[in-house]
Amino acid sequence: MIIPIDNELMKLQGTGEAIPVSFTVTRTGNPNSITSPTQPVTVRSREEQPGGENGLTGPTFNLTSNGVLGPNENPDGADVKVSPYVNIAEGQKITFTFKGFDDFNNPIEAATYVTTRKLDEVDVVQGHVFKVPQINTLLICTGFAEASYTVDPVEGSNQSPANSTVTRVIVHMLKPTDFTCLSR
């Protein structure tokens, strides 16, 4: 049996990890009713999650003026920034993922880079710049890159893990004097 619960009623009860929920069944014409055992239910609101109601936006790359990840702007690897977001909190963990693709959109597994950072008080105010190692960008050479991140909440909070949107950019790491980047 499915018993729909009005959203306004849920909002009045609030959110938390152990909201007590029970129900009572009564038949028309029968004076006897029965109440279910109380069950603790976790209730979360999208407004309280990392990124708030609109969710987490994708990270931003340091790009050329025409939107390309290039060697002049990123000589020692790619700087990719996760900006402060709604409901950011010290102690949250961000798992950052960078993936590479060739010109034909085939994944380049060796270009994948994943790292995790526990946010501190500076990150909460300024965001955090992840440095993708230069070798990972050179392995792509020309093609595409994608970056995204997952926020894991502070233990004991009423938040769920949240995923950002994916940011996809064109990669062209060849310098004018280069014939090729690293061979794959």
TrEMBL record:
Annotated region described as Disordered, given as residue ranges: 28-76
Bias kind Polar residues: ranges: 28-42, 57-67
Source organism, top-level taxon: Bacteria
Descriptive protein name: Uncharacterized protein
Species per Swiss-Prot/TrEMBL record: Pseudomonas amygdali pv. mori
